[in-house]
Every structure is written in structure tokens, then in C-alpha cells.
């Protein structure tokens, strides 16, 4: 049975092809085991660029998600449990208008059980530059100390505030959740489509070049383009389809986990990096996942040297 054709599908004639592909559901290629949350730098999957050109600002893509569905479910379920537990205490937080400092939680158990987890007092105050300067420098400094604790504990901090995501300074990375069908047809995605036509063309071309299952759980980072504001856009592929065809909440959470980790690994590898990260309350609109769950998940992730993400929501 065919589902109802939405207006945005009519605007994007290629949509049907993308959807049809999804009937051949095959699982994405996986590279991590169910007991390993994150690959060490030396084991990162090889990435490739979407468009070969002389411009170093080409789109950086990942080749694959990090886990199989089963693996993702197994490894992410405990994280989600923890995230959900944490979310229970924050169910009413979604409507907050003021800036909220969020202390990272030490919910991610790693190989070093005795490792000291960072407290709020020990987490450095992150400037924009500090946000991204550490990966490569730290890599060289820690070549002889692969087990350095820098990237072991959750160290991603969030602040939440009311505002317009598109008001970010130039060269900021704006992150939102996407379907794998090549549509930015509703919610904040529709605003992205209008404001960043060149970015949208790259997103649709990327979706056409791959199957939904190979896109799922990955992130597409699109650098600033000639038209539109000079922002990076981070597309997290958290559901195969959209509207009534969207994935289940649990599947969206699993995909969000992997897509975010993919984004973080790509950021570590970038030569020219965004100057900051702003994110909407991903998954909380059309995808119907309570923001508190996604927020708790983000707080379990790690980034070498620490990372600050501004959550900006118009409501
Ligand atoms: N200017 C602005 N500044 C700041 N925050 C803004 C804003 N405008 C809206 N928001 C908020 O942004 C959050 C996310 O809500 P959204 O419904 O957009 O996204 P989502 O992540 O749940 O779902 C993704 C699918 O939605 C789309 O539409 P389609 O699938 O095509 O139908 C895509 O294509 C995906 O597939 C909500 O908190 C909104 O208040």
C-alpha cells in the first residue's frame, strides 16, 4: 500500500525512487563490536569525499555507520536506559527559556574503571577555539599514551536557549536530524531548504547516490556554500523515512547515537573546522522523540578535549 504523497514529495520528483529502494532493506555495514562504544583514533573508518575537486572545503562523508542494528541495539540499550532514566528527571525541561548549564554525566563505562571521571569543576571552560583545537594536537602529544583518559569520559556540555538557529555566527555548524529520502520538507528542515539551497542540493545528491540503509546512522557535514549564510550544516541521518513512515523511537535513538558519533569523528579529522556547534532539539518535532531522551544520549558521548554544543530552539 502506498502512503499518502506529501506536498514536498511532489516538489521533489526523486522522492519516490528513494522510498522504493527501502523495500530492499539491508543492514548497514558495521565496524564496531557490541562491547566497544567508540573506535580508537587508529581504527576510525576510512572516509571519502563526496565531490572531488581542488577545494579543501569539499563535503566530508563517512563510509559507513559504526554498528549493526543488533549491535546498536545491544550497545545502545544500556546507554538509552541511562539516558531515559536521566530523561525522567527532565521531562518538563523542554520548554525552558533560560540558558541552562548542563553538567556532563559519567554514564559511559569504559575500559578504565578506575579512571577519574570529570566533574563539573574539572571540565575546562570551552572557548570556540578550544572546542576544536585539541584533536590533532592531542593525537601527536599522546602517541605514546594510547590509553590517555582525555577521550574516555563523557565530556560534551550543552547549553539550551530560546532563539533562532540560523542566527548563528558565520562558520558555525548547524546540526539537524534528517531522513534518508532526500527530503527537507517540514519543520526546521524546510527552513534549511529555503535558507541554504546549495546545501540542500548537496544533501539530495548525497541521498540519491546511496541507499537509505547505507545513509542511516551516518552524518553528512556540508561546509559553507556560495549561496546562503556561511554556515556548516550537519545532517544526522536518524530515520530512513519521514512522516508516518518514520522509524520507531528506539531505532531513531540508535541511529542518532551512531550518527552523532560519526559526526564527532569527522569533526576530529577536519582541517578547516567550524568555529562552534549549534543544534536544534533534534528528533523532537516530526520524529516525535522526546528531547529529554536525545539530550541525555548526547551527554554520554565523548570528544577528545571536550566539546560544547549550544541547543537553540525557537519555542
Ligand atoms: N528556526 C528554528 N530555530 C531553532 N529551532 C527550530 C527552528 N525551527 C524549528 N525549530 C525546532 O526544531 C526542532 C526539530 O523539529 P523538526 O520537526 O524540525 O525536526 P525533527 O528532528 O523532529 O524531525 C526531522 C524530520 O523533520 C523534517 O521533515 P520531514 O521529515 O521532511 O517531514 C526533516 O526532513 C526530517 O525528516 C523542534 O524543536 C522545533 O521547534
From TrEMBL:
<dbReference type="InterPro" id="IPR002589">
    <property type="entry name" value="Macro_dom"/>
</dbReference>
<dbReference type="GO" id="GO:0140291">
    <property type="term" value="P:peptidyl-glutamate ADP-deribosylation"/>
</dbReference>
<dbReference type="Pfam" id="PF01661">
    <property type="entry name" value="Macro"/>
</dbReference>
<feature type="compositionally biased region" description="Low complexity">
    <location>
        <begin position="70"/>
        <end position="88"/>
    </location>
</feature>
<feature type="compositionally biased region" description="Acidic residues">
    <location>
        <begin position="91"/>
        <end position="100"/>
    </location>
</feature>
<dbReference type="InterPro" id="IPR050892">
    <property type="entry name" value="ADP-ribose_metab_enzymes"/>
</dbReference>
<feature type="domain" description="Macro">
    <location>
        <begin position="175"/>
        <end position="296"/>
    </location>
</feature>
<dbReference type="GO" id="GO:0004721">
    <property type="term" value="F:phosphoprotein phosphatase activity"/>
</dbReference>
<dbReference type="InterPro" id="IPR043472">
    <property type="entry name" value="Macro_dom-like"/>
</dbReference>
<protein>
    <recommendedName>
        <fullName>ADP-ribose 1''-phosphate phosphatase</fullName>
        <ecNumber>3.1.3.84</ecNumber>
    </recommendedName>
</protein>
<comment type="function">
    <text>Highly specific phosphatase involved in the metabolism of ADP-ribose 1''-phosphate (Appr1p) which is produced as a consequence of tRNA splicing.</text>
</comment>
<feature type="compositionally biased region" description="Basic residues">
    <location>
        <begin position="40"/>
        <end position="50"/>
    </location>
</feature>
<comment type="similarity">
    <text>Belongs to the POA1 family.</text>
</comment>
<feature type="region of interest" description="Disordered">
    <location>
        <begin position="1"/>
        <end position="156"/>
    </location>
</feature>
<feature type="compositionally biased region" description="Polar residues">
    <location>
        <begin position="122"/>
        <end position="133"/>
    </location>
</feature>
<feature type="compositionally biased region" description="Acidic residues">
    <location>
        <begin position="140"/>
        <end position="153"/>
    </location>
</feature>
<keyword id="KW-0904">Protein phosphatase</keyword>
<feature type="compositionally biased region" description="Acidic residues">
    <location>
        <begin position="9"/>
        <end position="22"/>
    </location>
</feature>
<keyword id="KW-0378">Hydrolase</keyword>
